[in-house]
Write a structure and sequence with these properties.
elongated; single chain; 3 strands; 20 helices; binds zinc ion; mainly alpha; about 400 residues; about 0% strand
């Protein structure tokens, strides 16, 4: 079946035939470089198209219409059209053809290199794209765009040091701050270091991450994680509490760590005391603690169980599904049995619903993602402030 490219090229051949005819008729031919006889050539091109040999037709077009000042824009337009339509091989062929012209002006060469780099990026040929963007970033009018693309490529390839270098260059050139983005690059390096047990390097990177403004709380989380891993539990606990104080929404990340740290120390009374004092200062946090406990299955910790129980009793939607009188009137054993049943059911329901959502583009996910995979922004995800049990239950009912 003829594709859109076939029609596009057919249109171009007809246009060229008409132009060739007009040029021939009105004698505007360049005597030194006479264009090839278009009547034969365009018929040959059209013949390829009629046989649905689009690639041969394109090759024929490129041979026929040499890149010169008059035709270069047509070549660029055709190239970007093919790329937009996802026909990357053809776009690459056209842009390579432009670059092959020996007497190309510097600006046009840069434009062609930039177009070709974008083709490679679309085709997933990151190495080739990187090479061209590096070249363009060293001095062309595409410097800023090239550096932006390089940051994306290095993010995908997890080449964090290169991403930092490109980001810093971009800051200088564009005059806008990329402090948060660069801080996250350092955090990535710190997390890598910690994963390889190179805690000295990890600490160095965290320090660099925290030097910028605005500060990312991920730096503090990484520091706390390093402290835990190196058995400096006191520092870990202090940092996790500070993280919750400053950014309540990170309780879902910090609370399970706090619990695990105290458990490792065997100091459950210490945990109880720390959590009670936190909740005395911020009673509003009780529902967040309950939510985090339900989602992360934190059980058998009296203060947390208490938060969960109150949370369930206060949840209006639940009363439609569960006989909550059991909680308030039943004896201890019945009560805790009912409580744990509801908890585990809710935990399963919550696990099936995205918890975090990007505030920029709305992308949602189960786990906290520091960089949104959809809009590529950093630290734009926030959790649902509480489990939307009405939505969750509704969802569950309509799907069963
Ligand atoms: Zn997003």
């Amino acid at each position: 079946m003829p594709t859109e490219s076939t029609f596009l090229l057919a249109g171009l051949f007809l246009l060229l035939a008409a132009t060739g005819w007009a040029l021939g008729r009105f004698g505007e031919r360049d005597e030194e470089n006479p264009p090839p006889p278009l009547n034969v050539d365009y018929l040959k091109g059209l013949n390829f198209l009629l046989n649905e040999q689009t690639d041969q037709a394109l090759e024929h077009f490129l041979e026929m219409v040499r890149v010169d000042d008059k035709t270069i824009e047509t070549h660029f337009a055709l190239g970007s059209l093919f790329r937009r339509r996802g026909e990357i091989d053809r776009a690459i062929r056209i842009h390579q053809n432009i670059i092959a012209r020996p007497d190309l002006a510097a600006e046009q060469r840069d434009q062609a290199l930039f177009s070709l780099a974008k083709d490679y990026l679309h085709a997933g040929l990151l190495d080739r794209a990187e090479k061209l963007f590096v070249r363009l970033s060293q001095g062309s009018r595409y410097q800023v765009q090239a550096l932006e693309s390089l940051c994306r490529i290095y993010e995908q390839e997890k080449e964090w040091q290169k991403a930092i270098d490109a980001g810093q260059q971009l800051e200088t050139l564009s005059g806008r701050s990329l402090a948060l983005q660069i801080a996250h690059y350092y955090c990535e390096l710190a997390e890598e270091g910690a994963a390889n047990n190179d805690y000295a390097a990890a600490r160095r990177y965290v320090k660099k991450a925290q030097a910028g403004r605005p500060r990312t709380m991920r730096g503090a989380l990484t520091r706390a994680h390093i402290a835990r891993e190196t058995n400096d539990h006191k520092t870990a606990i202090r940092l996790y509490h500070r993280i919750i104080d400053e950014h309540t929404y990170l309780i879902a990340e910090a609370l399970p760590e706090i619990v695990a740290t105290y458990e490792k120390d065997g100091s459950m009374t210490g945990l109880d005391k720390a959590l009670r004092s936190m909740l005395d200062k911020n009673p509003d946090m009780r529902s967040l603690v309950a939510y985090t406990a339900i989602v992360n299955n934190l059980t058998d910790i009296p203060i947390i169980d208490e938060c969960v129980k109150n949370y369930l009793l206060d949840e209006p939607t639940l009363s439609e599904f569960v006989d909550l009188h059991i909680f308030s009137q039943g004896n201890g054993a019945t009560q805790s049995e009912a409580l744990s049943k509801v908890r585990s059911a809710l935990s399963k329901l919550a696990a099936a619903t995205p918890r975090y959502q990007c505030q920029e583009c709305g992308f949602s996910s189960q786990r906290l993602l520091w960089q949104c995979p959809s809009c590529r922004n950093w630290e734009t995800q926030r959790p649902a402030s509480r489990v939307q049990f009405d939505t969750v239950l509704q969802h569950s009912i309509t799907n069963h």
